[in-house]
Every structure is written in C-alpha cells, then in structure tokens.
UniProtKB/TrEMBL annotation:
It is a multi-pass membrane protein. It comes from the Eukaryota. The keyword Amino-acid biosynthesis does not apply. Pfam families: Nramp. The chain crosses the membrane at residues 79-101, 121-139, 159-178, 190-207, 230-252, 273-301, 321-339, 370-388, 400-421, 433-454, 466-486. One of its GO terms (biological process) is iron ion transmembrane transport. This is Metal transporter Nramp3. GO terms for cellular component: vacuolar membrane. Belongs to the NRAMP (TC 2.A.55) family. Keywords: Membrane, Transmembrane, Transmembrane helix.
C-alpha cells in the first residue's frame, strides 16, 4: 500500500481554506485515464499542463523583486561593484530551495504552512508564530508601499508627496479584490504583466547604462568577499528570503485541483511547480543582476557610492546617464512602481492566508484583505508623514525594517523544515536524508548571516545601559524560542499520535 499524507485520515471539519473548491483550476481532463492502476504513476510531461500549473511560482518570485531587494541590489552594486553577483546567484538558489519545500508542503498535504503551524504547535506557540509572521509582513509592506510612493513621486516630477503616494498605493487593495472576483488565472495574468514591465524597464536601463559584460561574468563566476563589502553581502542574502513568502507559496500551490490520495498526481504537481518556480526565479535573478550591474558600472568607486538609497537612486541615475529616448529617471520610476505595486498586492494575498490559517477565521476574503491592508497602511502613513522630507531618514528606516524582517526568518524556516521532514505529515513525500541535511544547513546559514546583521546593526545603533539590558533579555527569549522550535523536529506533537491511531484503524477496516 502506497504511503499518503496522513492528514488525509483526519476527520473532515469545516475550517478556513486557502481556496474554495469552486476557485481551483482543474488540471486533469476528461480525456485522461485516472483509474486505480494508474493512480500511483506520474503522468507523462505535457506542455499544456505546465501552462496550467504556471502562476504560483511567478507570484512567489515577486518577493525577490520588491523595493527592499532593489535597494539591496543598488547598494551592493554601488559599494561592492560586480563582486557580489556570485552571492546574489547563490542566495537566489537558496531561496529557490526554501520555496520548493514550501510548495511541497502545500501540495502533499493540501494545507498551507499557517494552518499546519496552528495544528502542530501548542496554542501559545501558534500565537507567537502568528504575531511574528504579521510583524514581518507589516515591515515588508511598509517598504513596498514606501517604494511605490517614491516611484509615484518620481513619475509625477515631485508633484505627489510621499504621504499621498501611500494613499494611492493603499487603493491597490481594491484592484486586488476586483481581480480576485474574476478568478485565479486573471489575477496571475495581472501579476505577469507587472513582472513583464519590471523586466522591460530594468533591461532597458541596463541597455542605457552599458555596464561591463566581462566584469559581470567574472562577478557571477568568481567568488569575492572582503571586509569592506561584508555588510552589503549580508544585505544581499538577507533580502532574498522573506518570511511571509514562505507562508504564501504553500498556499498559492493549492489553487490547482490536485488529488492528494493519488501519489502520481501529487508528484506530477510537484514536478510542474518545480519547473515553473525555477523559471520564475531565473527571471527575478536576471532583473536583480540588471539593477546591481547598472549601479556597479555607474557608481562603484565614486564619492557618492555610500550615499545612494532607494529615495535618491533615480536622481543619481539621471545625473550619470541623462536621458535617451526616455530619461533613465522615468525608466527607473516605472520599474520601481511595478515592483512596489506587485509586491504590495502579494503582501495582501499573504496576509489573508496567514491570518486565516493561524486564527482559522471564517471571514470573507474581501474582509480579510481589508483588515490585513489596514494593519500595514496605518503605520506606513505615519512613517510617510514623519520621513517625507528626509531621504537619509528613509534609508535609516529601511535598515531598521530589514532588521525587523531578519529577526522573523527562523519563525518561518524552522517550522517549514520540521513539517516537511515528518512522515506523519508528509507521508511518502517527506524529504530524504540528503535534502534534509542540505535544507537545515541552508537554514542555519541564513540564520547565522542574519544574526551577524543584527549584531552589527545593534552594536552601531543601540546605546545606553537600559536599552542594552532590555535587548539582551529579548535576545535570550528569542534564542529560547528558536531552540524550542528546533526541538519540535525530533519530537512528536500530541495530535500526531491520534493520527497514527486513526490510520491503523482505517487500515484494519
């Protein structure tokens, strides 16, 4: 008897789901044989099916292209030149591994990460994980909304102030809700257009700037790292893995109708999702390389290299390269706007799944979107009003937001790795020993890198005995919770014994 995810044996109860059955895209056609003799066999490759499965990976890839990532790219290029391109490539590969594990969890179990965390962990731990996920999402959304507002200010020649750009960006929630009513494929097509705009804009910018192709190739193939560029290197890696994106991808893959009781169908879905996610992240890597090399070619070794940030990057580009058929300032603004708008929309999407999964809220999607949008927009408005007149202050704020999200990374990665490693949850689709070792090594590396970022940042920014004492206490609690999460990887939670008993009872019957 083939092993299947044991969550299938749980009693069916009414609870929040990522997608209703009426919303899911049906992949298996009436012309395909799906009898018992074939249910364990993976169907042959089909280009038509690859097209039908294409979508979730591209939505996931937008988190690799948000304004926070673009700022990390431009700073790496301006300060470190071409020397960190190899690290950008390897960080993207690590991100791909994490996202494929997230997709694997969603497809094999039919549940997404937030739902499984609610069931796997005690109530208190689930609440902590939910709060951490929401904080990470809000921090990311502030960066994305501010990035969109900066783009709007650029494209309006400074006429639209930052705070009003935030209001305009906030209205994208209604665009999202409007498109969602027309089905998953329409929503995915809209995001594909935004990714296409980003690709065209930054490729055009790359063509205008004409960076060195030889230096680009050397930067990708030859690893280089110095003490002078370590901060930018940590920033490049830290920007790639977004906590909310790990939760998002495990839910997005459930937009396709996959029968978890048939091993061949599950494996088929995993194969197609792996292909489309890889293609999506290759596109995102190309865009990140475009941005890094443009700033490397134009500003590396100059006096202004260390002062370039998201808010003033367009003006520096205009001074350096001027205008062609379309001034490079506006090309940058268009690409930044597409990045900001697409990432805020996917952030709204992720917020729905995180809130619904952790709290099991049976709210209508428009209500959840409105709630999650408000949680991010209100603090963003406050930030915009405070920092509107100071570009340096915006850069400092962005550093704090990067730190905020770095803190949250273990609370998405560790539960994910624990869950995909357990046969009691994944059945025959649990990850094997080699992949488990690689995955935990990548997770540990990311946590150490972000730990270095935190240590470096706080040692420079935090002063005073009282603040240091409070920070030490919070750090101790933080580390203790991480140790607790890791310990769950080698212990079974109480409800899993119930699953095992239920499975044995079913097999006997």
């Amino acid at each position: 008897m083939s092993q299947q995810p044991l969550l299938l044996h749980l009693p069916q109860i009414q609870e929040d789901t990522a997608y209703d059955s009426s919303e899911k895209i049906i992949i298996v056609g009436a012309d395909e044989s799906d009898d018992e003799s074939n249910c364990g066999r993976t169907p042959p490759f089909s280009w038509k099916k690859l097209w039908l499965f294409t979508g979730p990976g591209f939505l996931m890839s937008i988190a690799f292209l948000d304004p926070g990532n673009l700022e990390g790219d431009l700073q790496a290029g301006a300060v470190a030149g071409y020397s960190l391109l190899w690290l950008l490539m390897w960080a993207t590969l690590m991100g791909l591994l994490i996202q494929l594990l997230s997709a694997r969890l969603g497809v094999a179990t039919g549940r997404h990460l937030a739902e499984l965390c609610r069931e796997e962990y005690p109530t208190w731990a689930g609440i902590v994980l939910w709060v951490m996920a929401e904080v990470a999402l809000i921090g990311s959304d502030i960066q994305e909304v501010i990035g969109s507002a900066i783009a709007i200010r650029i494209l309006s020649n400074g006429f639209v102030p930052l705070w009003f750009g935030v209001i305009i960006t906030a209205l994208d929630c209604f665009v999202f809700l409007f498109l969602e009513n027309y089905g998953v494929r329409k929503l995915e097509a809209f995001f594909a257009v935004l990714i296409g705009i980003m690709t065209l804009a930054f490729a055009w910018m790359f063509g205008e700037a004409k960076p060195s192709g030889k230096e680009l190739l050397i930067g990708i193939l030859v690893p280089k790292l110095s003490s002078r560029t370590i901060h930018q290197a940590v920033g490049v890696v830290g920007c790639i893995i977004m906590p909310h994106n790990v939760f998002l991808h495990s839910a997005l893959v459930q937009s396709r109708q996959v029968d978890q009781s048939k091993k061949g169908r599950v494996q088929e879905a995993l194969n197609y999702y792996s292909i489309e996610s890889t293609i999506a992240l290759i596109v995102s890597l190309a865009i990140n390389i475009f941005v890094t090399t443009v700033f490397a070619g134009g500003f590396y070794g100059t006096e202004v290299a260390n002062s370039i940030g998201l808010a003033n990057a367009g003006h520096y580009l205009q001074e350096k390269y001027g205008g062609g058929l379309l001034p490079i300032l506006y090309i940058w603004g268009i690409g930044l706007l597409a990045a900001g708008q697409s990432s805020t929309l996917t952030g709204t999407y992720a917020g729905q799944f995180i809130m619904g999964g952790f709290l099991n809220l049976k709210l209508k999607k428009w209500m959840r979107a409105l709630i999650t949008r408000s949680c991010a927009i209100i603090p963003t408005m406050i930030v915009a009003l405070i920092f509107d007149t100071s570009e340096d202050a915006l850069d400092v704020l962005n550093e704090w937001l990067n730190v905020l999200q770095s803190v949250q990374i273990p609370f998405a990665l560790i539960p994910l790795l624990c869950l995909v490693s357990k046969e009691q949850i994944m059945g025959s689709f649990k990850i094997g020993p080699v992949l488990k070792i690689i995955s935990w090594f990548v997770a540990a590396l990311l946590i150490v890198i972000n730990g270095y970022l935190l240590l470096d940042f706080f040692s420079a920014e935090v002063n005073g005995t009282v603040v240091a004492t409070v920070l030490c206490a919070l750090t101790a609690a933080y580390v203790a919770f991480i140790i607790y999460l890791v310990s769950r990887a080698i212990t079974f939670s109480p409800w899993q014994s119930v699953i095992q008993k239920k499975t044995i009872s079913n097999s006997e019957n």
